[in-house]
Amino acid sequence: MTAASRHRPPLSITSSIPTKTQPQSLARRLLLPPHSSDGLPPLLALSTNAHPDLRTELYDFIALALRAYVNPWWTKLTRYDKEFLPHINRILVHVIEVLEERVHRVQLEPLAFHDLPTIITQHYVDFRNVQSKLSTSYATGGAASLSQMFGQIQPHMAISPDGQIDAEYYRQTVDLILKACLPEEDYEPDVERVIIREVVVKILVNDIFPKITQPWFIHKTILDLLGPIDDDSYTASHLPQSSSNDTSFFQSMIIIILSALQGFSGACLALIHSYKQAITTIKLVNQSPSQSTQEKKAPPPPPPASTTGSRSAHTEASKRTSSLPSSRAQSYVSSTTSLPRQADAIPASTPPESLPNNQPQDYAVIPLHMLSEILNVQGRFAATLFFSALSMTSSSMTPFLDKLLPYLLQGFLSPSFILNIARISKRTLFPNGYPGPPPIDPSPEEQAQIRAKLVAWRGKGPLSHLLPVIVGPDPSETFSAALDPLGDPQCNTRLLVFILDRVLVALFPELTR
């Protein structure tokens, strides 16, 4: 044994085992250059209350979209350029930053409580008017279908007469959005802009729109929002009722007394909990800043683009942007919230600076009218009285409701809700990591079962006692009539396009110039 071998330190067991490197995420492998030690660019820097996992989900969504729609054809052109996808990712991160800034500037309350309920109300009114004119001379002797007549009442240049989406409309819209979001050096190269534009248009037109306009998808979404429905109560009417004479009168009386005591104690506990919850909510609402204070602190809107070609681009966008159909003269809708006529462009929401700070917003008026139109309360006297009393009560509580409804909206758009939406979107568009074959739609029997569950919904707690007053003695018939205007995919497509146009105009007011 040599002297060198005698003084060599012994090898430990852990050092002799080869260390296994931790696998990198798909986003790091695709969206960063090879052998880069840098981290991914920060996302959602302005959203301090965002969920910690939302950034990971967004990067995973971006990596899956680029791997599915860009990587297949780019690797055929060159297999050695690994900088292209990271460069596209930097552009997308910049677009997301601008969108985040604009979302923080948007006044969500007028959009959620004025404009969107007005669009939905108009959809129900027009659908029921068209439905009443089927098989008459208004339908060219019964030859015109419901979707064709509805398209004549609510025309839109993004939708063809047969109900097909025009992809060119959204190409121009996304191109103008990219021009407002990207710096000049990133917008000028046609290749980068066209790739990003086509990826967004492909996901919207081919993947999202055909899915969410299906009636069964809307029914399932409403069921998910309502929460779990008791299957026992749903199947109780379909099961044979067996009567047993073995139970004695004394046992029946004991069961009735114990059930009454349990119901009474449960009602008392529910009242105590509701009282405590109401007191806490009222305190939080009163402590929240008023609308006028938020408007004073709101940053100024972004200035329009100063390039020479921006005015012509915006003019072209204004020509390509269709308007909402003209709304009927109704006393509850003011001139600032009524829908424009066909020759006008989609209106942007009235800027807060043009309204007095002490003017009430009446956030509860149009949602109440939308609910009454959906449930069609005009044909039921008790429901009409109930909604009239509810409208008068809400009018007397307008200052408080103008604080309560925005508070509830912020609670609904919680960080966990937004994270759940991102995860559901990723699983829907990329079920196995790739946009493989689309998932199989439910069979007609399964779709009928989803609708039947929604029609059989009766609510829980105090709502179940008020339901007969609101929807009448036959709730199933009322709910079935309320779902009919959402039963045609082509009509749903027009509703979706109008809603999307309104949201885009709220985010990018320069689209109407």
From TrEMBL:
InterPro entries: Phox_assoc. Signal peptide: none annotated. It holds the Pfam family PXA. Residues 1-21, 287-360 are annotated as: Disordered. GO terms for molecular function: phosphatidylinositol binding. It comes from the Eukaryota. Residues 51-230 form the PXA domain. Residues 12-21, 320-340 have a biased composition (Polar residues). PANTHER family: SORTING NEXIN (PTHR22775), SORTING NEXIN-13 (PTHR22775:SF3). This is PXA domain-containing protein.
